[in-house]
Structures are given as structure tokens and as C-alpha cells.
Amino acid sequence: MTETTILSSAARTPSREEIEQAFREAYEIGRAATITGKVADYIPELAKANPRAFGIAMLDGEGNRLAFGDTDTRFSIQSVCKVIILAVSLKTKGFRETFSHVMMEPSGDAFNSILKLDTRSNLPFNPLINAGAIQLVSTLADEFSFEDLMGFARELCMDEGICLDQAVYHSEFESGNRNRAIAYLLKSKGVLQGDPEKTVDLYFKLCSLSVTARSLASLGLVISNDGVNPLTGEHLIDPEHVRTIKSLMFTCGLYDFSGRFGVMVGVPGKSGVGGGLMCAARGPMGIGLYGPALDEFGNSVAGVKAMEHLSRRLNLHVFDY
Ligand code: GLU
Q1: In terms of DSSP H, where are the helices of the chain?
Q2: How far away, in angstroms, is 243 Cα from ligand 1 center?
Q3: What is the whole-number distance in angstroms between the Cα of residue 61 and the centre of ligand 1?
Q4: I want to staple 291 with a disulfide (CB 3.0 to 4.6 A). Which of 212, 242, 249, 300 is the partner?
């Protein structure tokens, strides 16, 4: 038995006290880990984040909440928006059409890699890397305005305070030539629809939505609850689509660390270079983490450490029986 295992694998339901204690410990472990990471600086505005910041929020299906640390700090959603883009695509285009634009394979490359797109395949490997999200945005750009998509993000995150972080958006716009290169490469292959500039502009705006750890916990809860907001009963995502979203989060949600996160944590998650990590755990339970100090793959070091602890302590791994 490892030091952090308290529950037997014959999964009994942890008590409220055990859950709270596990989150408290995870917060301490995560906070201590912040010194091992570095904030993203390839988008200059992100470099202004406090590398020692860390917050962890939980929301369960009965409306119970836990929050430790910096859970009200606003930061840009970055790649976590790719889950929302995928949800919108599945909802409006359906499964078949969505996956005629993008594959569902882990890429094994960095989030912004252009390599395999040029050499191995015309279609982006999956919707949770830049190329895949940019491709899906191109198919949605005629039908949806930024405001429409922000409205959906607000609903899913149960957060009316979500807005465009203008400073991050301008910084992304200025420094986003790699994403433009991806869009133009997709266009040259006849894959990207519409105008590459209009597409990346909408993509930059979606990455610049400002959220909190609490908003990500709410998003995680909706996903873990088969697409229904359990607090209002609203059906926001079709359960069949949630199954697809969770599968891709599990296999592709943490860049080229997804395999290790799958083994060590075993919870569908999606990270962003702004320091956000959104997890959809069993229960249903949504967990939102914010820690802008990142590891070499672009994941929050504190977020990953905290999730490793929570998974062990609360038997959250999907293969814990
Ligand atoms: N806006 C970022 C980019 O396109 C998102 C990357 C991320 O969070 O993985 O580079």
C-alpha cells in the first residue's frame, strides 16, 4: 500500500470529511510543486502570471463545493476551450461530420506541432491540439459569432463573468504566427474551410476567455454528469457526445503527457498553457485547477501533482474498481 492510499480498491464512497481532507492535502502538495515549473512566455501576456499561484476547486452533483487557494483569480482558458469547440462541433455538425475534419488519435507531439500535419496526414490528429481546434473553428466560424460561443462557455462553466481578456487576445494575435502557419497549411491542403485569418482570430479569442478554477470545476461537473448541469437540470451536451469528449480528454487532453496522466491519474482532463486544468471525475465531480507554472509539456505542474494525489486518495482512476 502506498503512503497516499487510504481507500481500499473495493471502492467505498469516501465521506465528506475524507473528501475535504484529500483536497486540502492536494492543495498543499500542488502549492509546494509550483516552484518546479515555469510560466508560459511564448505569448508575452502569459508571462505576467504569478508562478506561485495555485488554486483548486471542486463542485459535485449535489452542489457541494470546495475551494482552496487562488480559485477566484481570472486567467485565460487557453486550450481548455478546445473541449468547448469540440462540444459545439458535435452538437451542430454531428459525430460523422466532425470526424471528417479531424482524426481522434493522440499525436505524440507538442500541442502546436506542425510536423505530422505536413508529413503524415492531411487531417489534424485530434481536436484537442491546436491544428484540430483551428480546423473545427474554421467549420463553425460562419455559423457562430464569438459572442455565441462565449455564451455557450458561460453556460457550461456556470460563470456569467467569463469575458474576453483583451490583453491576452492582443498578445496572442501579435505572437500567433505558428497558429497562422497551421491554418494556412490546412488551407493549402484543402482541409480548412473559409478564411485562415478569420479562423485564427476566432480561435485566439476563444483561447483568451477569462475563467477561474471554479469555472473549470463547473465545466468538469457538466462533463462528468453526462452533459447535464445537475444544479439546474439543463441538458447542455448530448450524453453520446460527452462520451466522445471524455474519451478524447483521456487520450489527448494533456498534450504529450496524456499517456502518463492516464496511467497516474486516470481521469479525463484538459489542460491549457494559461495554467488551467479541468477534470471530469466520477461522482459526478468537477475539479478545476489553476497553477500557471508549467512543466516541459505545457501542463500545470501543481495541477498534475494535486490530481495524482486526489486520484489515489479518492479512488478517482477510471480503472479503480
Ligand atoms: N492559445 C494557445 C496557442 O494556440 C493555446 C495553447 C494551449 O493552451 O495549449 O498556442
Answers
A1: 16-33, 81-101, 115-119, 130-140, 146-157, 166-175, 177-188, 196-207, 213-224, 239-252, 258-264, 301-314
A2: 24
A3: 30
A4: 300
Instruction: Give the position of cell 487562488.
Output: 70
* CA dihedral (95, 122, 181, 259) positive or negative: positive
Question: Residue 277, SS3?
Answer: strand
Ordered by start, the domain boundaries in the chain are 16-79+210-314, 82-207
Res. 321 pLDDT band, cuts 50 70 90: low
Q: For ligand 1, atom 10, which residue shows the shortest CA distance?
A: 112
Ligand 1 atom nearest residue 179's Cα: 4
Report the candidate in 132, 38, 30, 36 with the shortest Cα–Cα distance to residue 85: 132
- The matching CATH number, chosen from 3.30.70.360, 3.30.470.20, 3.10.580.10, 3.40.710.10, for 16-79+210-314 is 3.40.710.10
Interval 47-86: pLDDT, tens: 999 999 999 999 999 999 999 999 999 999 999 999 999 9
**pLDDT confidence bin for 6, thresholds 50/70/90:** very low
Q: Which CATH architecture has domain 82-207?
A: 3-Layer(aba) Sandwich (3.40)
pTM of the model: 0.95
